[in-house]
Amino acid sequence: MRTFFDPRQHDHAPAMELHNGAYVPYAEHRGRMENVLEALSDIETPRDYGLEPIRRVHRDNYLEFLESAHKRWVEAGRTGDAHGYAWPVVGRRPLKLNRIDADLGQFSFDASSPIAAGTWSSAYWAAQSALAATEAVLGGDRSAFALCRPPGHHCGADYLGGYCFINNVAVAAEAAIAAGRKRIAILDVDYHHGNGTQDIFYDRGDVLFVSIHAYPATDYPFFWGHSDERGEGAGEGATLNLPLPRGTDLASYMAALETGLAAIRAFGADMLCVSFGADTFAGDPISQFALQTADYTPIARSIAALDLPTVIVMEGGYAVDALGANVAAFLAGFG
Ligand code: SP5
Ligand code: ZN
Fold first, then answer.
1. What confidence tens digit (pLDDT) does each residue in 85-139 have?
2. Atom of ligand 1 at shortest distance to CA of 26?
3. Where in the numbering of this chain does the Histone deacetylase domain appear (predicted)?
4. Is any ligand 1 atom within 6 A of the Cβ of residue 193?
5. Kind of pairing between the strands at 271-276 and 239-244
6. Identified catalytic residue from 12, 58, 154, 193
7. What percent of the chain shows pLDDT beyond 70?
């Protein structure tokens, strides 16, 4: 399977994140990719598809903010990574506030996703990797893998969060639609609910979003991913959330997966995009499912049995020493 990664995706290097009331080392670090790159061979760098495909997903004011935020942070006399501390919980009027702290609150939803000097470059090239994998599949490959870092599924059209800045899987889906595909299914198998992807396509009938994740009553991102969220307007019924309890093992995971796959079959997709997070692994330091490395192969085999052209996009996975093996086990299921 062709695999895409750009070395500029390493540039994003926030130092710390807020976790349980203390600053701890940033979990989504470049060592993750280094472990995966060692486990895979024949990595290709993407070509540059430009900003246009990213603008199909994200609002211009958000992209302008993201590209300039760290520079504005430095100009404001700050050191370290750009970080919000006030959020407009009640409502978000389209205010034009010329204060970096206000904009950090306006365009984010959590306190664990700092913007560092290299963030824009890395997020841009992660999206280009997703576009290269999409181009491979549109060109006739059965499947392709975008080794995206930073990940993307937590960020929406105009907000970042959850270590995510550009929604790579949404960029891939929109690129496929722009190339003439009519109905796209997105299957999100990261441990956390893909709230950004859900928001982006919530009122769309041409993109089915199916997510298997930890119950948002116990796990991040809390405010999305509940089973009664089913889409709205033209998108009503085109969102399917399948939350599972902490401790979930392969048997109960597979039961939920079969439910999700049946929905994808019924939808009649002409292409599949998979948000693959390996944070469902038993040894993940921030997650609580019980999947083993070998489990990723039968999971992937079931997904491959949909027999759809498939773009696989990397999301989370923080058990760094096992990450390459877990990714390789998943990709092996696509044979
Ligand atoms: C893409 C993805 O998997 N994002 C997950 C975001 C979860 N963020 C909230 C959990 C914070 C846990 N921080 C632990 C840091 C340990 N160094
Ligand atoms: Zn995750």
1. 888 665 667 778 889 999 998 999 998 899 999 999 999 999 999 999 999 999 9
2. 17
3. 31-332
4. no
5. unpaired
6. 154
7. 99
Per-residue pLDDT tens digits for 249-300: 999 999 999 999 999 999 999 999 999 999 999 999 999 999 999 999 999 9
Check if 154 is active-site: yes
| Ligand 1 nearest-atom number relative to CA 285 | 16
Number of the ligand closest to the Cα of 196? 1
Q: Which atom of ligand 1 is nearest to the CA of 220?
A: 9
How would you classify residue 111: left for phi > 0, otherwise alpha for psi between -120 and 50, otherwise beta?
alpha
Instruction: Find the distance separating the first CA and the last CA of the chain, reported in whole Å.
Output: 8
User: CB within 5 A of ion ligand 2: which residues?
Assistant: 190-192, 277, 279, 316
> CA dist 266 to 78, 237, 313, Å?
52, 12, 23
**Residue whose pair of structure tokens reads 């999700």 in the numeric block:** 260
Fold assignment, 2-58+118-332: Arginase; Chain A (3.40.800)
CB distance 190 to ligand 1 below 6 Å? yes
Q: What is the pTM of this model?
A: 0.97
- Taking the C-alpha atoms of residue 335 and residue 325, their distance in angstroms, rounded to an integer, is 15
Q: What are the boundaries of each domain within the chain? A: 2-58+118-332
Q: What is the pLDDT of residue 90?
A: 56
